[in-house]
TrEMBL record:
Chain positions recorded as substrate binding sites: 88
Alphabetized UniProt keyword annotations: ATP-binding, Cytoplasm, Kinase, Magnesium, Metal-binding, Nucleotide-binding, Transferase
PANTHER family registered for this protein in UniProt: ACETATE KINASE (PTHR21060)
Keyword Cytoplasm: yes
Name recorded for this polypeptide: Acetate kinase
Cited PROSITE patterns: ACETATE_KINASE_1
Source species, domain of life: Bacteria
Subcellular location: Cytoplasm
Function: Catalyzes the formation of acetyl phosphate from acetate and ATP. Can also catalyze the reverse reaction.
GO biological process, one term: acetyl-CoA biosynthetic process
Chain positions of site Transition state stabilizer: 177, 237
Spans through the membrane: none
Cofactor(s) needed: Mg(2+); Mn(2+)
Native organism: Marinomonas polaris DSM 16579
Gene behind the chain: ackA
C-alpha cells in the first residue's frame, strides 16, 4: 500500500530525511547529508539498527537527494510504498497559514519570504526543485514553522514601530516552532480531554527555544519574532535584549551592524555566558563538577524562559496546562525545576520526585498536588506532523 512519506528538512549545508510509514507511526529509514557545499560532504543512512556513511563525490543538494533515490532503488518495497514528499519550511511569511501542496507558485512564495530566512528558505526551495526533478511522479507538500502562529491578533504580532514598516516591508512577529506546537496541542488533547478548549502554555526548549500560548487550540502569542532571535536565551542566541546593544557592540568591537548581529545569533546565549558550551547537557555536567559559569548560564536560561512563559500567558483566560518539550524540555529535570520555581506566583508547581524520575521519551504529568496548572513533559514529533499533513493534502 502506498502510504509512506519521505520527510525532508533541507538546510543550507545539511539535509535531514526520514521515511515514515503507517500514517507516520513507523520510521523505516532516516539519515542526514552533512557539510553540503564542501568537498567533505557525506550522507548517513540509519536502517534496521545499522548506520551506513557514504562520502559524497559532489556535495550538492541534488547529489544528496540522488543518493536517497539510489538507496530506494535498492529497497524496492519501500520505494514502491512512497506516496509523497513533505518538506519542512522555516518561513512562510504571511503567505501561508497552513501547509500547502507544492507547485511553482508555492516555491516562488517561499523564495519571496527568503528576506527573513536567508539561509533556510532558498535551501528549502532548492530541495523542492531537486525533489521534483528526481521524483517526478510524487506530490510534495510544504509545512511551515510559522503557519501555526498566523492566528495571533494584531496587537500581539505588530511591533511598536512606524506602521509603514509593516505595510511596506511586512516587518512583524511571525514566530517559529509552529509544527512542534501544533503537534503538542493535538497530543495534549488526546491525553487531557478538553484541553483544546482551554489555555495551554508550551516551552519548546532545544538549541533553538521559544514559548507559545495556545488558547482553545489556536496560537495566541509566542516568544520568537520576525526571526528566531527574539525571546528566550538559547544555545548560541541572546534572545530579547535592549536593541541599543546592537550599536554598542558594533562600536565596542568596531564591526558592522551585521557582524554585531552575528554575535547575538552565534556567540551569545548559553555559550556566551558560560564561555564553555552551547550544549545544555555539557553545562549540566560542568555545573555538577562545580563550575559556577555553567550554573549561571543555566539559571539565566531558566529565569528568562519563565519570564517569557508568563509574558505569553497574558493572552490566555486561564493556564490549565504547561508543557515542556524539545531536547532540553524533555530531558533536563534541573531546568524544569528552576523554571517552575520562578512560576510560583502563577501557582504552577511540580512534584520533584516525578520530575527527577521522568522516563526518557515518554509523556508524563509532573504537577505537584497543589499546582493550579497541569505540568507535562511531552516529546515533540515534527516529522509525524509533516507526514500527516502530506498524507492529508495529497489525498484531496
Ligand atoms: P534542536 O533545536 O537542534 O532540534 P534539540 O531539541 O535536539 O535541539 O535539543 C538539543 C539540546 O537538548 C541540547 O542543548 C542538549 O544538550 C539538550 N539535551 C539533550 N539531552 C539532554 C539531557 N539528557 N539532559 C540535558 N540536556 C539534554
Amino acid at each position: 500500500m502506498k502510504d509512506s512519506i519521505l520527510v525532508i528538512n533541507c538546510g543550507s549545508s545539511s539535509l535531514k530525511f526520514a521515511i515514515l510509514a503507517n500514517a507516520g507511526q513507523e520510521t523505516l529509514v532516516e539519515g542526514i547529508a552533512e557539510r553540503l557545499g564542501s568537498d567533505e560532504s557525506s550522507i548517513t543512512f540509519k536502517f534496521e539498527g545499522q548506520k551506513n556513511i557514504i562520502q559524497l563525490e559532489d556535495g550538492s543538494h541534488k547529489n544528496a537527494v540522488a543518493h536517497i533515490k539510489n538507496w530506494l532503488s535498492s529497497h524496492p518495497i519501500i520505494e514502491s510504498s512512497l506516496a509523497g514528499i513533505g518538506h519542512r519550511v522555516v518561513h512562510g511569511g504571511e503567505n501561508f497559514s497552513e501547509s500547502a501542496l507544492i507547485n511553482q507558485n508555492v516555491i516562488d512564495s517561499i523564495k519571496e519570504c527568503a528576506q527573513f530566512a536567508p539561509l533556510h528558505n532558498p535551501a528549502h526551495a532548492k530541495g523542492m526543485e531537486v525533489a521534483f526533478e528526481l521524483f517526478p511522479g510524487l506530490p510534495q507538500v510544504a509545512v511551515f514553522d510559522t503557519a501555526f502562529h498566523q492566528t495571533l491578533a494584531p496587537e500581539q504580532y505588530l511591533y511598536p514601530i512606524p506602521m509603514h514598516f509593516y505595510r511596506e516591508n511586512h516587518f512583524r512577529k511571525y514566530g517559529f516552532h509552529g509544527t512542534s506546537y501544533r503537534y503538542i496541542s493535538q497530543r495534549l488533547a488526546q491525553i487531557a480531554k478538553g484541553s483544546d478548549q482551554q489555555g495551554v502554555l508550551v516551552a519548546h526548549l532545544g538549541n533553538g527555544a521559544s514559548t507559545c500560548a495556545i488558547n482553545k487550540g489556536l496560537s495566541s502569542d509566542t516568544s520568537m519574532g520576525i526571526t528566531p532571535l527574539e525571546g528566550l536565551m538559547m544555545g548560541t542566541r541572546s534572545g530579547s535584549l535592549d536593541p541599543s546593544l546592537l550599536s554598542f557592540i558594533s562600536q565596542a568591537e568596531n564591526i558592522s551592524a551585521d557582524a554585531a548581529l552575528d554575535i547575538l545569533n552565534k556567540k551569545s546565549g548559553l555559550l556566551g555566558v558560560s564561555e564553555i558550551s552551547n550544549d545544555c547537557r555539557t553545562l549540566e555536567e560542568a555545573m555538577e563538577s562545580g563550575d559556577p559559569r555553567a550554573k549561571l548560564a543555566l539559571d539565566m536560561f531558566a529565569a528568562r524562559t519563565a519570564k517569557h512563559l508568563a509574558s505569553v500567558a497574558t493572552t490566555l483566560e486561564s493556564i490549565d496546562h504547561l508543557v515542556f518539550t524539545g531536547g532540553i524540555g524533555e530531558n533536563s529535570s534541573y531546568l524544569r525545576q528552576v523554571i517552575c520555581n520562578h512560576l510560583k506566583a502563577l501557582n504552577i508547581g511540580i512534584n520533584s520526585t516525578l520530575n527527577e524520575n521522568a522516563p526518557r521519551g515518554e509523556t508524563i504529568n509532573i504537577s505537584s498536588d497543589s499546582s493550579n496548572t497541569n505540568v507535562w513533559i511531552i516529546p515533540t514529533n515534527e516529522e509525524l506532523m509533516i507526514a500527516l499533513d502530506t498524507i492529508s493534502l495529497i489525498q484531496h
